[in-house]
Amino acid sequence: MDAAAIVVSNVIGSGIFITPAIxxxxxxxxxxxxxxxxxxxxxxxxxxxxxxxxxxxxPRSGGEYVYLKEAFGPAAGFLTGWTSFVxxxxxxxxxxxxGLAGYLGRFIPAAGDSTPWASLELGWLTLTVSSQxxxxxxxxxxxxxxxxxxxxxxxxxxxxxxxxxxxxLLIFVALALTIGHGTVEHFQPAGPVxxxxxxxxxxxxxxxxxxxxxxxxxxxxxxDPARNVPRALAVGTIVxxxxxAAINVTYIYAMPIVEMRALDVRIVDAxxxxxxxxxxxxxxxxxxxxxxxxxxxxxxxxxxxxxxxMARDGLFFAAAARLHPRFRTxxxxxxxxxxxxxxxxxxxxxxxxxxxxxxAILLFTGVAVLALFRLRWTRPxxxxxxxxxxxPVAPGIFALASLTIxxxxxxxxxxxxxxxLMIILAGLPIFWWIRRKHEVRPVPPPLS
Length: 448
Known about the structure:
Amino acid/polyamine transporter I, 18 helices
């Protein structure tokens, strides 16, 4: 249940409050919108079951880094870990922390004030300090300290935030569909469904589902991983799919598709205002602070396990493999991630990084699922306590769908893809430098 809570908190974040309006623009049809979210959920579940086999085959911290390295070599593993550090986890942490400060600003105006206090020019990069940035940095630093203090304190905070998050969203849905001022007439179509639009819509949908693989990042720290990692991935993913489906039904019940498409604010605010009035919208904003805090906490916990695993294998800076002498946590990896996330907050570059590298999240998970096929072929005799459900069809569909969505995104927006690809490939010189500098040294102890 601890690992399932990490999945839930890692997935349910700012995405579900932003992407539905974008998806309504791409697929202006209620059934189409719900269908896209359902397809995304089925793909996420198929991917989770593939990861469950990989995690029980190699129950080590690091997630897809471990699987890509094992199946396709160290360079492939490094690039997914590099992308996770530069944009994946750190960008999500920075974006959620700034979003949390913005929501807090509804009650404490100074917290959301982005007016610069001071700026520092560093060539092409400008660091700007504001009240909003200070709040975001405080949140990142505070949750990082919690997770440095040990798995125990981190687990308690994580489970509490995850429980509150799901409870708040389910209460919101229940009240909306019973006493809210919505109507089923909003479920009438507002436009046709186009297949290419559905493929494009799956990109923000899968971005919103990203994190379903979070339990695999901490597989080394889960008791009896052969039994508990598959359960955590399955339970966590199913809970997220059900919550997302319910939330989207609520959004459509609250307002017609035409109005959803025109929104320039978070859709949860507009929906709460329509359903219950301005007071409820403020209450939902307060709840969103908790939801975003849970998401930040999950990313703060999961990300450093990737960098720790890379450093332990000699594929990242050696310091990241050091464990805190008392708390037995990857404290330096946690601190490095917090520092980089803070830099993204101060430079306001997290949005661009996420936009440019968003496709890579789906690309690397698709390739990680392909690793399942390769390892079945190259290591047929290895012990597999869990075998992916529906193999080879379900993981094959996931991998094919992932690559199809990525190829379609490249075709539709080659400039963004090209920029993202350059960010990813920029890791190769660092990879080669680290490989040359790496010397044989004692293997750090496993995470306890």
